[in-house]
Amino acid sequence: MAQRVVVTGMGVMTAIGHDLDTFWSSLMEGKSGVSLVESFDVSEYPTRIAASIKDFNPEDFNIDKKEARRMDRFVQFAVVASMSALKDANLNVNEDTDPERVGVYVGSGIGGLSTWEEQHKILLDKGPKRVSPFFIPMMIANMASGQISMITGAKGPNSTAVTACATGTHSIGDSYKMIQRGDADVMICGGAEATISPTGMAGFCALRAMSTRNDEPAKASRPFDTDRDGFVMGEGSGILILESLEHAQKRGARIYAEVIGYGMSGDAHHMTDPDPEGAKRCMVKAIKDAGIAAEQIDYINAHGTSTPVGDRSETTAIKLALGEHAYKVAVSSTKSMTGHLLGAAGGVEAVICGLTIKNGIIPPTINLDNQDPECDLDYVPNTPRKADVTIAMSNSFGFGGHNATIVLKKFEA
Known about the structure:
It is an enzyme of class 2 (transferase). GO terms for molecular function: 3-oxoacyl-[acyl-carrier-protein] synthase activity. The chain is an alpha/beta fold. It folds into 2 domains: about 5-250, Thiolase/Chalcone synthase (Peroxisomal Thiolase, Chain A, domain 1), CATH 3.40.47; about 260-410, Peroxisomal Thiolase, Chain A, domain 1 (3-Layer(aba) Sandwich). The protein contains 14 helices and 14 strands. The chain has helices at about 20-30, 65-70, 75-90, 95, 115-125, 135-140, 145-150, 165-180, 200-205, 245-250, 275-290, 310-320, 335-340, 345-360, and strands at about 5-15, 35, 50, 100-105, 160, 185-195, 235-245, 255-265, 300, 330, 360, 385, 390-400, 400-410. The strands form 3 sheets. Strands 5-4-6-7-1-8-14-13-9-10 form a 10-stranded mixed beta sheet, with helices on both faces. The longest helix is centred in the N-terminal third of the chain and has 17 residues, at about 75-90.
């Protein structure tokens, strides 16, 4: 019989909060984390704004200075969010469980981009002998999972998804299935990203995918709004602690929600242009896996990136997947506040779904002043909404046509 899987801990590192309480308060206040980029010269960039994490020092979070220097920024974010999540779950890997039954599955859409930039410059300026021996192990996307395992002592399944903006949700969904089939009792899972760098910004600017509303940073990310002109890049990490229900109950853990469904699909269509049919199939699979009717869904945390094409495509997909219920379900895009965290987005947004179920309040889509007529669903504009959310769904869609959806439910023993 398949194991039931529950969420017992959560941790975040975002531009609008480094801990759950601050993060949730920011969401309820409709606070934007977007500002002018200050970490490098952006004067020649079409986009000069991002949801950057300011004043981050890994030593403030008990990461040894020497060890921190051997971690790319995305790994530092992942480690901090994971330790926060474990603390929130009141779980010590080596004391409270069998370490061989604890796994780590933390992905990144791009990985150590800033490390690559730094070391490539050293190669060009000083030659190959000056490149750091830690260059490769700092850069590769699986090193977040590797470092978390080494720091916590988790010896169970250890892997990494790299599926662009679907990464975080794939990581959580795959972890859910691992526990469900008995491969692990506990999974530390989610995503991390740190690509607010010269190359990262230049690449997305070249794609013309990002907002150029540089004079109004806080209003730049505006999903489903007529005046949206692209996404705003964010950075950070979102981590969940998943446990089998039996394991969680045995140790008396507090439970935020139960994971009940996971769907994934491929568009087989285009590198960057989404196909609503692919997203629809993904949602339908998640709903089927959850064993529920579409009409039971109370809230959808949308992928909602604030791109003209993407928001319309997701709106169409939701209508295809949910039918008439699409007009009754509450949908919001919290990227309007956090920015788009790429591979970390699904992790952060799963945390939001867990908090929404726990607190009975749906976070808004801010900056939704003039709703696009083609985006005609209920996007909870600008103000949080009290609601008894029993079932929440989170969507993540990535370049390459990678789609992932998870379904969370209020826990009932």
